[in-house]
Write a structure and sequence with these properties.
Layout: H1 2-16, E1 19-20, E2 25-31, E3 37-39, E4 45-50, E5 64-76, E6 84-89, E7 96-101, E8 106-115, H2 119-126, E9 128-137, E10 140-152, E11 160-161, H3 163-183
Antiparallel strand pairs: 1-11, 2-10, 3-10, 4-9, 5-8, 5-10, 6-7, 6-9
């Protein structure tokens, strides 16, 4: 009978252990040239986001990037006329292109929000994301840009044990130790 109780207790312990996935954290990187950069047909502007540095940082091969959004703020405060432009996001086969025209005139400018699709693979690879701003006609001012990534910290594919499961394991090990001492 004692063996049956131990077997049932062991089965209950095995069934009780669950896992929970850690909630994603937000990692942001910001580019703000001073003074603002004028982008023309002959003068593109290229910059790189790096989410591998800072207090909360991404570690390639360990962390998982769930999603990422790029926000690019442009301005045409001198009312320089109509322009068409392209953003080349990422590099190689994982690049992503965003095209638009006519930045809003005035001192507020316009912010373009772009969800990373193809370029997400480029960011996942090493935590770096290159962006090239160009004008195919006219010109505009690049004010700033922000990359916001949702990242699950920890080993890729591993789940984190629930705290209650760990507490249950500790209590059961303590119980086994007490039962063993009584027998001796």
């Amino acid at each position: 009978m004692d063996s049956l109780k131990k077997a049932l207790l062991g089965l209950a312990l095995v069934c009780a252990f669950g896992t929970v996935t850690a909630a994603p954290i937000t990692i942001a990187d910001y580019v703000n040239p001073s003074p603002d950069r004028t982008v023309t047909t002959n003068n593109p502007f290229t910059f790189v986001f790096d989410i591998t540095d800072g207090a909360e940082s991404y570690v390639a091969g360990v962390d998982t990037i769930v999603s990422a959004e790029l926000k690019i703020h442009l301005m045409d405060n001198a009312q320089k006329g109509n322009e068409t432009f392209t953003f080349l996001i990422g590099s190689g086969g994982t690049s992503q292109i965003y095209s638009a025209q006519n930045v809003n005139n005035g001192s507020q400018g316009q912010t373009y929000s772009i969800n990373l699709l193809n370029a997400l693979a480029d960011l996942i690879a090493d935590g770096l994301l290159s962006v090239k701003l160009s004008a195919t006609s006219g010109n505009y001012e690049f004010v700033d840009a922000t990359l916001i990534a949702k990242v699950e910290k920890g080993t890729v594919g591993n789940a984190v044990p629930e705290p209650t499961s760990l507490a249950l394991l500790g209590i059961s090990l303590l119980g086994f130790g007490v039962a063993r001492r009584r027998r001796q």
